[in-house]
Description:
Layout: H1 2-21, E1 33-41, E2 46-54, E3 59-61, E4 64-68, E5 71-75, H2 90-96, H3 102-135, H4 139-177, E6 181-185, H5 188-222
Antiparallel strand pairs: 1-2, 1-6, 2-3, 2-4, 4-5
Helix pairs in contact: 1-3, 1-5, 3-4, 3-5, 4-5
Amino acid sequence: MLRFLNVIIFLAAFLLLLLVSVSLPITKSITYFTLTAGFDAGAISSGVSGGVSFGNWGWCTTPLVVEVFGIDRTEPGECSEAKIGWTIDQRLVDLLHLEGLQDAVNSGLTLALVLNPIACGITFLTLLFVLWFAWRQTRLSAIIGVCVGVVAAILTTIAFVIDIVVMTLVKKNVENVSSNFHVTYGQTTWMTLVAMILTWIGIILFCIAGFRGRRVRRKEETY
């Protein structure tokens, strides 16, 4: 029973990391953070307000509202091309007045963009070994599974720490530039946190299941 529970735990951790790894713009509802901006020029009754959300493979803008002499004009949102190592489009920088924030955002996300998919891949390998152990309780499957699982847990923990540090630094740097900028956290940080907790719990249960399986085999050999 314990080994099958472990399968569910690692499956859940893998699915969470997978969703993080295929976040925006592939999965538009899952983001790292959203940067909103609003600028007003009261003398001529003009301004612009809008936002941009960042994900593992790019960014998407919310509809941008441009006001000129009291007349609102809305530009539809758009998404960047899905790719790793993306940068903020210059037109978006000009429209939302993001000058000086490009380096803070782009460099800050680099580690998180790379590490989360790696942690997802190692967690999937751990899931395979857990399935192997659930199907056939062998000493080899237990040892390899625990070793790979520990690597997955460590990588997921590092990914979570990096997510927290990066998001905190980006929020601080962005909002220090101007009160017109505001950063809100997305879902990926908390999804990574849950995956990290599940992975460590899974490792503990894996060790317990392996120890119990070994004791059962010894009793069978004795009798």
